[in-house]
Structure prediction request, 280 residues.
Amino acid sequence: MPERLDPPEETPPRSRRAGGGSLRRAPPPLATDCALFLDIDGTLLELAATPDRVRVDADIVALLPALAARLGGAFALITGRAIADADRLFHGTALPIAGQHGCERRAADGTLHFHAPAPIGLEQLRAEIGRLAGLHKGLLLEDKGSTLALHYRRAPKLAGHVHRAVRAHLAAAIAAGASLRLQTGKGIVEIKPDGRDKGTAIAEYMAEPPFAGRVPVFVGDDRTDEYGFEAVARMGGWGVKVGRGRTVAPYRLPNVAMVRRWLVALLSAEGSDKKRMDDA
Prediction:
């Protein structure tokens, strides 16, 4: 099997090939005929040194089910986190969610889909990368079950070493028959099953009610989200990149605060619609 490795974090080719520049306009207002998909870390929540240190406030916990209701249930979270971890963050809201880059997915009717529960070669990599994390202060191995994420945000000087070491281990696993891929992100390298990404998860949602027939909109901040941006574009929708960096998304919002303001505007529009009906 040919080696399938994404490039180093410094050169995201998918965005460069698409000609994505740094200038992007603000997205149009959301409409009630949209199907909305949101990344979590760096999009809804500010990034933290480690995944367990992100701050979740009461406003965002209340906002998510309100958005789902406004969109007729056509709302889902698309994240690299495990579903159980995301549920913990948002206090059991039990929204539709695709976790571990689409390796697990909870549909709108509550059905759970597991696409790659135990990829071949992952156990050996778990041990090897665990040893690597143990050798260096500031590295954190996050074992999500179907994916392995090595965080180096607390030790940015180790970025080059982390990339080289993880790539070497993964190349050996692929040579032995593992169907795995390296996914890079902001201060993270992650090993995940080949063929699964945020775009495949969104496509599965769009084939199901209540998402089918709507305009898909995806909001994300990292290179893992480029798969989602490409997927919604193929289906006639649009993506919103949060923060800086090259992207295929046609729209951009500068930070988490502006994402929230943009989302709340949909609920404000509901109030305006109701007032117009009452006045009539």
About this structure: Helices lie at 13-17, 58-70, 83-89, 122-135, 159-175, 198-206, 226-234, 256-279.
